[in-house]
Amino acid sequence: MSNSLKGRLLAATAAAALSLTAIEAAAQATSPDQIIGVWEAENGNIKLEMFDAGGSYAARMLYGKQLMEADGTTFKKDTLNPDPALRGRSLEGIVFVSNLTWDARDRRWEDGNFYSGMTGRTMSVQAELVGEKMQVRAYMGAPLLGQTIVFRRVP
């Protein structure tokens, strides 16, 4: 293969990579309200509704496979809640993500709280749109130590 052909192939590959990067960047969030809507985890185990909570964003639980009783339709009670007064409430519709704030520079929602009805613990959370998907990362301490769940928008 000639040097000129190698150079053209390399230039074409670089141009394609730059185009893909530009497309991905354009597909990321440009407005804080883009997070609003109903989302379902890729594995189908969680369905939530993200909403504007007046100065921040939050999510309420619509469905959670691990939060359901054996009948598959009744939500479990919030028995592990650190507040004894809340232990009798249903996990259905609880606001489990709160205080997410839009960071325009990083183009993501940060500094939120994530309440796990499975453990009764509250963690930090951030969310980001990547293409058509929302990545939600819950963590204790540093984001690197967390877990990400990928969601797709439900029409």
From TrEMBL:
Keywords: Signal. Transmembrane segments: none annotated. Pfam families: DUF2147. Residues 37-153 form the DUF2147 domain. Residues 1-27 form the signal peptide. The keyword Signal applies. This is Uncharacterized protein (DUF2147 family). It comes from Ancylobacter aquaticus.
